[in-house]
Amino acid sequence: MESGAGKHWTEEEVKALLSVWSEKNIRKQLQGTLRNKGIFIYIAKRLQELGVCRDWKQCRAKYKNLKYEYRTVKYAHNSGDVTKTMKFFHDLDAILRYEPVTQLAAEENGRCSATETQLNTSPTTDSTQ
After folding, report:
1. Which of 28, 58, 102, 114 could be 54's S-S partner, Cβ–Cβ 3.0 to 4.6 Å?
2. Maximum mean pLDDT: which of 2-6, 58-62, 83-87, 111-115
3. Residue 124 pLDDT
């Protein structure tokens, strides 16, 4: 189990991951890409240069877990619950606050408000219909 996916990340390993993740080109590539194996292979290689031996699957799993935990704490804080905390919250906030919001606010009729805005500003809606 020493080198398996279940091995715990040390604080230094997480800090190294965050330093690579915080690079502008890495953040850009991770935004909105679903098939990101190549990015995590690159991140794993960068971590090896920093002395952290993790494979791309471990890097992706840690990335997803940190992101989930960050969003959970962020949501709690926005809801007024400041008791919920996590160790690297401020580091993650600096990285993730630049990401666009992936959730769209759904309206009562089931359509997204972003879609509504786009439809209303379309040049074809007022003259051709």
Report:
1. 58
2. 58-62
3. 40
**Burial profile 49-66: b = 16 or more Cβ within 10 angstroms, e = fewer:** eeebebbbebbbbbbeeb
Contacts of residue 99, Cβ cutoff 8 Å, sequence gap at least 6: 27, 31
Which residues share a beta bridge with 112?
106
Residues 6+ apart with CB under 8 A from 31: 99, 100
- Backbone φ and ψ of 20, nearest 5°: -70, -45
Buried b (16+ CB within 10 A) or exposed e, 92-113: beebbeeeeeeeeeeeeeeeee
Break the chain into its structural domains and give their ranges.
Answer: 11-97
Q: Taking the CA atoms of the chain, what radius of gyration do you get in angstroms?
A: 19
Q: Which two tokens stand for residue 121?
A: 């500003």
CA end-to-end span of the chain, whole Å? 64
Closest CA to 16 of 69, 88, 78, 85: 88
User: pLDDT tens digits for 1-48?
Assistant: 344 455 899 999 999 999 999 998 898 888 878 889 999 999 999 999
